[in-house]
Amino acid sequence: MGKVAFVFPGQGAQSVGMGKDFYDAVPASRRIFESADEVLGFPMTNMIFEGPDSELKKTFNTQPALLTASVAAFEAVREQGVTPDFVAGHSLGEYSALVASGVLSFEDAVGTVRARGEFMEQAVPGGQGAMAAVLGAEREALAELCRSITAEGHLVELANLNCPGQIVVSGSKEGVALVGERVKEAGGKRAIPLEVSGPFHSSLMKSAAEKLGGKLQPLHFDEPAIPVIANVTARPAASAEEIRGLLVEQVYSPVLWEDTVTYLISQGVDTFVEIGPGNVLTGLIKKTDKSVKLINVSSLDSLETLKASLEQ
């Protein structure tokens, strides 16, 4: 029997109404939503269930909302008695993974990601930063193109190494635009601008990372009960202290998602369970390796198929 990894989505997977069926049917999931409202001091649950979408899309709302919906889904999965061999999350999703592995309490995580969203929004004035998804480029060739554009005075860097043929770049508005114009130099087909509020996972986020470090410092981190694969290294974090440092680095470093998936497969994982809204990660994992089994738990209905799939 192969191993199982639980993976948790990042920003972009959110939608109005996410997690409502878990809230209605699973008391442990409902407690997560109630706890979020209490920690944040406002009815986040109402915003998640009723919108408006324009409010939910604001980074400082998206991050705690997505964490809440993902952990609520995880609580429902946990009640089924399913335990993973590894956990990982994409960017913000790493916090859901840390809650699932017992490193952080949900209360500490939800307060932290609310602040993380605020720090990321504040780091670069609106309109000065950008991100774009580059399709079809090789990693090294695209990194080289980014280095040469940065050397010309327009900072742009690799931000999310998602799967073969899909890499997100991040940086100054001009730098990202130049990647789009010169994408063929890196063997790429095209660059699609992303609707984001800042140049996430680029060195322009260092001021946000510094503030996040201050926020994380007093929090209690437990040793992981389940190995957590870090975005920054695509390897399991060895200790609670290392995790604290990696979360700071993660804000301005590339998310090594393709490497994370490849590493997990090398460790015997043949089943990936995406827990939380949407199915973005399922799509990326499929493009990385078509042979693995993929299960998506974004709704109550999918819980019933989960246990059946794992028992096969």
UniProtKB/TrEMBL annotation:
Methyltransferase found in the keyword field: no
Swiss-Prot/TrEMBL GO biological process terms: fatty acid biosynthetic process
One Gene Ontology MF term: [acyl-carrier-protein] S-malonyltransferase activity
Keywords, sorted A to Z: Acyltransferase, Transferase
Catalytic site: 91, 201
Location of the Malonyl-CoA:ACP transacylase (MAT) domain: 7-302
Enzyme class: transferase
The keyword Transferase appears for this protein: yes
The protein's name in its UniProt record: Malonyl CoA-acyl carrier protein transacylase
